[in-house]
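Reviewer 2 asked us to include a model.

Predict the structure of this chain.
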Amino acid sequence: MSRARTRPDESTKPSYITAAGYRRLEEEAHQLWTVERPKLVKAVAIAAAEGDRSENAEYIYGKRKLFEIDRRLTFLGKRLDVLTIVHEKPTVDGKVYFGSWVKLEDDAGETRVLQIVGPDETDVAGDKISCEAPMGRALLGRLEGEDVVVPRPRGEAHFCILAVARERPL
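Predicted model (structure tokens):
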């Protein structure tokens, strides 16, 4: 899932997202608005009808959960308005662009495949890395076969770009 920010990005810096990432955020907002929220409103109404609300755990939990859903919907609405969708696929010239899939090898010989995406669709546990992260910034504009040095708090990491592609299979 996307990185949750505590407040919308108010900088003048453009925020980019892939078309698939934008679609996922839209689907999340639609799911929350049309399925989750109505179901929760109904549950809160049933809990409220049971009597004393101050000691009704279901009512209190439901109200908190409803607040969280409303807050997420507000956030998604603001983010979707300011994001710039990058529709075009990266060119196939061996250079790393936004949306490119990159196969890397580290000093230990381990390989890893990553896609360069916007911060709203980053999945560090998966295979999507932000173009604003140190690794993403180090990779952008580099060519296949180049060595890349990524600054980290515990020291520099060295990688070799084995392949660059438009689609996942590398």
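The mean pLDDT is 86. The chain has two domains: 15-86, 101-165. We have added this to the supplementary material.
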